[in-house]
Amino acid sequence: MADQPLWRQLIFYFTHNGMYILEQFCRHFLISFYGVLIAAIIGIPLGIYIANHYKLGNFIISIANVIQTVPSLAMLSIIMLVLGLGPNTVIVTIFLYSLLPILKNTYTGMRNVDPNVIDSARGMGMTGIQLLYMVKLPLAMSVIMSGIRTAMVVAIGNTAIGSFVGAGGLGDLIIRGTNATDGAPLILAGALPTALMAVITDLLIGLLQKYFEPTNYMKK
Amino acid sequence: MQTAKEIISFQDVAKNYRGGNDAVENINITINEGEFVCLIGTSGSGKTTTMRMINRMIEPSRGKIIFKGKNLKTFDPVKLRRTIGYVIQNNGLMPHMTIKDNITLVPKLLKWSQDKMDRKATELIKLADLPESYLERYPAELSGGQQQRIGVVRALAADQDIILMDEPFGALDPITRDDLQDLVKHLQEELGKTIIFVTHDMDEALKLATHIVIMDSGHIIQDDTPDNILQHPASDFVKELLGEERLLQAQQNTLSVSDIMSKNPAKITLGQSLAEAIREMSLKHVDTLLVTDDNNKLKGFIDLETINDRYSKYSNVSDIYQPNRFKVKTTSYLRDTSERILKQGYKYVPVIDNDNNLIGIVTRASLVNIIYDAIWGSEELDNPEGIKLPDSIAKESDNA
Q1: Which of A114, A120, A143, A219 to mutate to test the interface with B (most CBs of B within 10 A)?
Q2: Which CATH number characterizes residue B330's domain?
Q3: Most buried pick, A217, B28, B153, B173, via CB within 10 A?
Q4: Residues 42-71 of B with CB under 8 A from A
Q5: CB contact, 8 Å: B106 with chain A?
Q6: How far, CA to CA in Å, does B307 sit from each of B299, B314, B392?
Q7: Which CATH superfamily is domain A18-213 in?
Q8: How far is CA B27 from the centre of its chain?
């Protein structure tokens, strides 16, 4: 087997372990997705809140900034001390890393809504809630989306490191490849789908973001 | 306007922000139904603050506002705002909604039926003088002027009878602005809407308003009709705001005939002879004489041509004088008189008092002086008597 060219070995691995790779692919994606989802569920409302409370906003964003500076491997290990091995540790790590881009973009998006539009919406008799879901959120949506996009791409990369704490995912293949002699096909079998996943996710969320772009409203 | 119903009244309203400086103070304004009120002043004069108190976007710190007979504070702000139209400078259209959704925003908040909203949208786009196909477009596809048209008619969507406008036409070019001013004036005059309009443009205020409130650094300087403000500016600030040119023009418009007439018209009484009439003419260098009776009551006029034609047959003024076609009272406004002289070709207009006594005469030459002053400026306007009139009826004109 080892005398075959690399790409042949790779195809061989894919054809014989296709289901395994697919399984790890889904696992990898879901770990990233859950992390970002939780971050979005907490980050977007928090972002909306701090957009209206300017001083608190700076404080919370600087906390998120500090979290971001911790290296991901260190973060994983620290959280492992509390939560033990397994995917939950990775999901929490992803959550912490996704919080900043989502929080910051929500905050920026909300604050950048044209004050004239908000003033006229209030002046026409919208309640606070109506103002939020009829005006502010639709107009900030594209910026919020771009935060989720950044978070998602970073999360897919971080999940690969998650294999160190036994979460599984495509990172497993990469680590196995680095430990084995002549493990190049294994490394590629893990790295290529990871890269593919990141690129496709980025493109898809990018499309979604474009859909919400306010400048798009004249072409639709 | 005394009979009109009072709709909003400010009573000793003041607003101060934290930090101590008073945004506005001692605001007392009464706004009647159907009025077009312009709040005018420099930036920072508190005009916008005052306007925004009406729909409770800003709460007064002191004093109270009576709205339709009740204290404004008893109204729920959200419900109140849905009954008051609101137009702001940069149109404030929702960029993510179609024109139709923008127009029917308030009806939607009020939960009208879709059918009723559709009809309203069609009705209002017609009022804005835009094609119906625009309803499906987004604001960014319209020009600035068209957007503001939508902004204006949107304020009527829920049949609001009061509309607040905050410098709505400040960012538009002069031609579009003229168009929109006409539209707004139409809303007030034809549809009977009460409009409260904030502007810093005096031309706009004078063109539109029936009631102008001039503000400076949080205080009301003058609160009156446009005519009264032009005639009696309350202070130097108001004069400056109006500008010298407008004041002169206004003075011309409100000068009465007696201010510029010549007090010694060339005249002759009924009983005198034609020979005397000719002597009088040559003495005063005129070709026409006004004819009065012995009590100085105006009877008519006599001119050189008539005398020339009939000198051989008649000898008395009373035989050949002609009655005046047009005469004015001393209290008439000059603007009405000057129009007659300039456009209808009268060479002169005799001025009489209430008892038909001849008091003076206004000629083309007297108008020239006024126009000269309006163009070049002059102190002489303060004592119009000083205007040197030629010896009344000018001799240069032969074709009467």
Answers
A1: A120
A2: 3.10.580.10
A3: B153
A4: 55, 57
A5: yes
A6: 17, 9, 19
A7: MetI-like (1.10.3720.10)
A8: 24
Say if B160 falls within a structural domain: yes
| B82 interface with A at CB cutoff 8 Å | yes
ipTM of the complex as predicted: 0.76
d(CA A2, CA A5): 8
Q: Given the DSSP bridges, would you call strands B84-87 and B162-166 parallel, antiparallel or unpaired?
A: parallel
Long-range Cβ contact pairs of B170-179 (< 8 A, separation 24 or more): B170/B89, B170/B199, B170/B200, B170/B201, B171/B89, B171/B90, B171/B144, B172/B144, B172/B145, B172/B148, B173/B145, B176/B144, B176/B145, B176/B148, B177/B204, B179/B145
Dig out the tokens for B253 from the structure. Answer: 């418009």
Closest partner residue to A123 among B79, B81, B109, by Cβ? Answer: B81
Interface touch A116/B106, C-beta < 8 Å: no
Picking from A149, A128, A153, A151, the residue whose alpha carbon sits closest to that of residue A51 is A128
* Interior angle at CA B193, CA B189 and CA B199, nearest 5: 85
Distance in angstroms (rounded) separating the CA atoms of residues A162 and A95: 13
Q: Tell me if chain B has a CB within 8 Å of the CB of A135.
A: yes
CB atoms under 10 Å from CB of B391, counted, come to 16
Asked, for residue B142, whether it belongs to a domain, the answer is yes
Give mean pLDDT in consecutive 10-residue pieces for chain B, a chain of 400 residues: 74 81 84 90 86 89 88 89 88 87 91 91 88 89 88 88 88 84 86 89 86 89 87 85 75 70 82 83 84 85 82 80 78 70 75 84 77 60 46 41
Domain enclosing residue B271, as ranges: 257-386
Number of domains in chain B: 2
Run of H or E including B322: none
